[in-house]
């Protein structure tokens, strides 16, 4: 494995860490409705547990209401029950074959808790990126030790990997700041 391969693999893994972090952020509730919020809720469908998005059409009615339109008429009650029993604190209301899921307003205390959660997730993502930097630097040091690369290559590589790390950490900080503003907006 060459230094270029190590850098490419490290960058790909850091991008995966950012994608995972973004996925975690979509699950954190803000005052606004988001169809992605129901992605974690699973419903039983012919013996299998599937995400709601695979058995119904999930859309937004307005900024505070999600609508769930089951594809099969008899799935409505199961979907409603799954949403109610999830740990999201939502109370769906059935209107014929359409299920409305209003987003309750969040208290100031709850907003602060969510902000702390966002910061914790951001810190975890930064730790993952830093761990990838450490692994990449260790791999380069091993190449130098095995005399497959020079010490000058090692210094250049470490500087390059540090620039990459700084770029991804700045992106994480920007995502955290954006999500905090979303959570604190009334």
UniProtKB/TrEMBL annotation:
Q: Please state the protein's primary subcellular location.
A: cytoplasm
**Example GO molecular function:** ribosomal large subunit binding
Q: Name one GO cellular component term.
A: cytosol
What are the residue boundaries of the Ribosome recycling factor domain, all occurrences included?
21-184
Q: Which residues form a coiled coil?
A: 133-167
GO BP annotation list: cytoplasmic translational termination
Q: Which CDD domains match?
A: RRF
Q: Which UniProt keywords apply?
A: Coiled coil, Cytoplasm, Protein biosynthesis
The similarity annotation says: Belongs to the RRF family.
Function, please?
A: Responsible for the release of ribosomes from messenger RNA at the termination of protein biosynthesis. May increase the efficiency of translation by recycling ribosomes from one round of translation to another.
Q: Do you know which PANTHER family this protein is assigned to?
A: MITOCHONDRIAL RIBOSOME RECYCLING FACTOR PSEUDO 1 (PTHR20982:SF3), RIBOSOME RECYCLING FACTOR (PTHR20982)
The name of this protein is Ribosome-recycling factor
* Organism this protein belongs to: Corticibacter populi
């Amino acid at each position: 494995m060459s230094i270029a391969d190590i850098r490419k693999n490290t960058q790909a893994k850091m991008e995966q860490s950012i994608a995972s972090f973004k996925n975690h952020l979509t699950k954190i509730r803000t005052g606004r409705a988001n169809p992605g919020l129901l992605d974690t809720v699973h419903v039983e469908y012919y013996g299998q547990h599937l995400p709601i998005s695979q058995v119904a059409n999930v859309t937004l009615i307005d900024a505070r209401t999600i609508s769930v339109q089951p594809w099969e008429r008899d799935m409505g009650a199961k979907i409603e029950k799954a949403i109610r029993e999830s740990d999201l604190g939502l109370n769906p209301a059935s209107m014929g074959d359409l299920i409305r899921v209003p987003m309750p307003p969040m208290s100031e205390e709850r907003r602060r808790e969510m902000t702390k959660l966002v910061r914790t997730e951001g810190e975890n993502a930064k730790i993952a990126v830093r761990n990838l930097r450490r692994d990449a630097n260790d791999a380069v040091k091993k190449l130098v030790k095995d005399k497959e690369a020079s010490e000058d290559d090692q210094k250049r590589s470490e500087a390059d990997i540090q620039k990459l790390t700084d770029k991804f950490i700045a992106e994480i900080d920007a995502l955290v700041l954006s999500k905090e503003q979303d959570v604190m907006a009334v």
